[in-house]
Amino acid sequence: MNSLHDGAILHNGVKMPWLGFGVWKVKDGEEVVQAVKTAIEVGYRHIDTAAVYKNEQGVGQAIKESGVPRQELFVTTKVWNSDQGYDTTLKAFEDSLQKLGLDYVDLYLVHWPVKGKYKDTYRALEQLYKDGRVRAIGVCNFQIHHLEDLLADCQIKPMVNQVEYHPRLTQEELRSFCKQHGIQLEAWSPLMQGELLHDSTLIEIGKKYGKSPAQVILRWDLQNEVVTIPKSVTPHRIKENANIFDFELTAEDMEKINSLNKNERIGPDPDNFNF
After folding, report:
1. Cβ–Cβ < 8 Å for 96, 119
2. What are the DSSP E strand ranges found in the chain?
3. What phi and psi, each to the nearest 5 degrees, are found at residue 63?
4. Beta bridge partners of residue 109, listed in sequence order
5. The CATH number of the domain where 135 resides is what?
6. Has residue 270 been placed in a domain?
7. Is residue 275 part of a domain?
8. What gap in Å lies between CA 77 and CA 148, rounded to an integer?
9. Domain of residue 253, residue span
10. Is 227 exposed, middle or buried (0-12, 13-18, 19+ CB in 10 A)?
11. Residue positions in the annotated binding site for substrate?
């Protein structure tokens, strides 16, 4: 983990950069185009979007305008809940691909475990993977019981599970389950949408290394072997978030951060959502 180009090796051998750039709530058009172009200029090679973010088009435009060869980038998108089901997922994928202006995506994910639908949805992902349209497939927001249900009869084990993960929601059991099954854990809202930036423990640890609380959290993610995708539209923050490869947290600091856990979510509970 020495640079933005370093990555986790997924169970099918595909390399996924440890640090990515998220675009949730970033407006399509100029805002997302500029943010993604800035991230790519800074050195990010992993971009995470989703159909429901409604900014795939801008992400695709930024990729095209960046001048970086497509094979050097790792692009993720996700199928939204209203499109779940076998045939509808295949169609949703084509729509996403068209908006992104790409021939393939590196990672395609089931956005939420929609009851009675996520297995058929995942079957469509398996088909896309077999057809070579995606380099890796996975899920988001799956708890252990969802994963067990999926693993019971899927043909291809998910490569990634992207979940809410930060120092107040450390999901130790889930992390350990994923590790045991060769599923790479990935964090969304790693900074708890900014709420953790005022935490006194994180500020204190940051002072020791000359780093911001955000940088401390992102480094903690990486040292826990969790891929992470912070989001920002501010150029200096985009740069700052990437500047986490020149220091290492001690075991004692890692433990202090782990102890901040309160099982507190900022997003919906994957067992009780209605969208």
Report:
1. no
2. 7-9, 15-17, 21-22, 46-48, 74-79, 105-110, 134-140, 160-164, 184-188, 227-228
3. -60, -45
4. 78, 138
5. 3.20.20.100
6. no
7. no
8. 23
9. 7-258
10. buried
11. 111
- pLDDT for 1: 82
Q: Does residue 2 lie in a domain region? A: no
pLDDT digits (tens, 9 = 90+) for 129-145: 999 999 999 999 999 99
Structure token digits, residue 95: 């729509």
Residue type, 231: K
Residues 46, 51: Cα–Cα separation, whole Å: 17
Catalytic site residue from 53, 118, 129, 165: 53
Joined tokens for residue 24: 């949730």
Average pLDDT of span 94-117: 98
| Entry pTM | 0.97
Q: What amino acid is encoded at 77 in this protein?
A: T
Backbone angles phi, psi at 38, to 5 degrees: -60, -45
What one-letter code names the amino acid at 137? Answer: I
Cβ neighbours for 53, distance < 8 A, ≥ 6 positions apart: 23, 24, 25, 26
- Is 53 assigned a catalytic role? yes
Please answer whether residues 104 and 134 qualify as being in contact, where contact means their C-beta atoms are separated by less than 8 angstroms: yes
- pLDDT value of position 16: 98
Query: In this structure, is residue 264 part of a structural domain?
Result: no
What is the pLDDT, as a whole number, of residue 233?
A: 92
Q: Which residues are annotated as a binding site?
A: 111
Report the percentage of the chain scoring pLDDT > 70.
100
